[in-house]
Amino acid sequence: MTTATIAKLSERIEAIASLPPEIPLPSDVETLIARLLDALEQGDVRAAEQGADGTWNAVPWVKRGILLGFRAGRVVPMPEGPASSSDQAAAFFDKHTIPPRALTLRDGVRVVPGGTSIRRGRFRSPRAPAECPVRRMRSRSLRRR
User: What are the CA-CA distances from residue 130 to residues 43, 52, 123 (Å)?
Assistant: First the structure.
């Protein structure tokens, strides 16, 4: 993705995200969110940047784009599929605009069981484990002892 394309994406997200809640979102909002998620997954856009002092800060327009994805989304059964009724059981329910990312062995990501999911738009480095948040917190507390 070129710098000009990223600038256009940023401008469009900022414009739509600033719309008041009572104004309907434009019809291309889902396509826009998908482009943002693709750019994040490919590493063309970062959700956070490291400052000169070493602290990480969210990139404001990307944050607004992700929040826009939740605003524009509708809750659907996951994994998404045909639902015959609102009483149909599903693994879980979430916004259709920011679903869990489909991973394959080729991605080289180790997913540890126990409630872990990786949403679309998340860049994962090969060989980086994706652990359950509780397991990660427990291992950090053990290291502090």
Answer: 18, 28, 12
